[in-house]
Design a protein that fits this description.
Chain lengths: 203, 203
DNA sequence: AAAATTTGTCCGAAATTTCGGGAATTTTTA
DNA sequence: TAAAAATTCCCGAAATTTCGGACAAATTTT
């Protein structure tokens, strides 16, 4: 599970207090004093969540939220808000903020919210990874001649076997259940050289 | 996104109030009056989350939580708790509850928490689906003779082509770039009959 | 109902693949 | 360094695959 929490808070005291709270919970706070400083950390595939004050000198929490959404639509942003700003925070949620915390808030409450956000972020990133993987393995071949597709597959099988056998043709041939000579025949057809598959680790 | 919310609440008034709140938000409440009644709805792959009172005549929220976890480790459970029971709720969170709400709670707050839980549940289920799919397509063949693996693949290609061609061998053959007769040869080898691929829609 | 098209099967020649044997060369092992 | 093993290539016979032609049966179109 992810642990990074990008903290955007101009009040130095509060900021370090939050950092301490998170560190006690084995999270990884990344403290910043405002939007400008935080900006470069906010990027697609950020492996964590954002915890931002809503009211700051230069920019407000909405700036953070909007910027985060341009970088990654599914990057959870939790806003810290004073009691009088709760309606603002609710509006922020409608615009995609993940949650808000009313200042001052109990450490427990903050940790609970962060855990939920981090869990969601982890799930989102896992989802993306698995989907990418699926797309790759699925992009096998959907067009082309039967023989072209079969040759593509045969090449892959042979290369995989050679790779597993550390480039040793004899071993690969046995694994594939064919005589060495036959494998050489096939390799010749596909312009595969065994050397390319030797020494998978180091050199 | 999922919308089901299994409500476990013995107080009929509060229960119907919650139902109304959820319906206004286009969610799908499933009201029950206690653990016994809810039990049969709690199952693996439930497409929603659980919202349960923590203090009830027959069983308490922990019973619900534990039972849910035996059915599905990743089924979010939100607990409704009186003010005096907040410490209990925090303990429940450590045991895997997703969140808790202090009674009486503002409809907005409840909806926000439910949305987060439903979003997480949706992500979890998507994750499972994609992983299953990946496992299937990945279980191609990692062992066996070269010819065995190639034949398996050839069979799949042919069946896919026939399926696309509505079981018409001539069309499938053209798509595969081979003469019709050759495809018949191959089909004979694999015991594939074209009829099996006809009429994919209706009859 | 007749005509036209498609299906499914068989045949046989040409092309390709398989595979054992052999042998020169390189790499690894002892 | 000597021996053992593996690589890479060539050959040729046996087996398999490809593919066009032909044709009866089944289906669809007209």
């Amino acid at each position: 599970m992810f642990k990074k929490v990008l903290i955007i808070e101009d009040d130095a005291m509060l900021r370090s207090s939050i950092v301490q709270t998170l560190e006690l919970e084995d999270l990884e706070p990344i403290p910043t004093n405002g939007f400008t400083q935080a900006r470069r950390s906010i990027r697609h595939n950020f492996r964590g969540v954002i915890l931002s004050d809503i009211k700051m000198p230069d920019h407000d929490g909405f700036d953070v939220l909007r910027f985060a959404q341009t970088k990654d639509e599914e990057l959870p942003v939790i806003l810290l808000t004073g009691h009088s700003d709760v309606p603002t925070a609710k509006r922020a949620i409608k615009e995609g903020a993940y949650d808000y915390l009313e200042k001052p808030c109990a450490p427990d409450t903050m940790i609970e919210a962060l855990h939920r956000a981090l869990k969601q972020r982890t799930l989102i990133m896992e989802n993306r990874e698995v989907r990418d993987e699926l797309e790759q393995t699925n992009s096998d071949q959907t067009e082309g001649t039967l023989s072209e597709r079969l040759e593509m597959h045969e090449r892959r099988i042979i290369e995989e076997a050679l790779s597993d056998a550390d480039g040793k043709v004899a071993i690969a041939a046995e694994a594939l259940g064919i005589p060495r000579n036959t494998l050489y025949d096939r390799m010749g057809k596909f312009n595969i050289v065994a050397k390319a598959f030797r020494k998978p680790t180091g050199n």
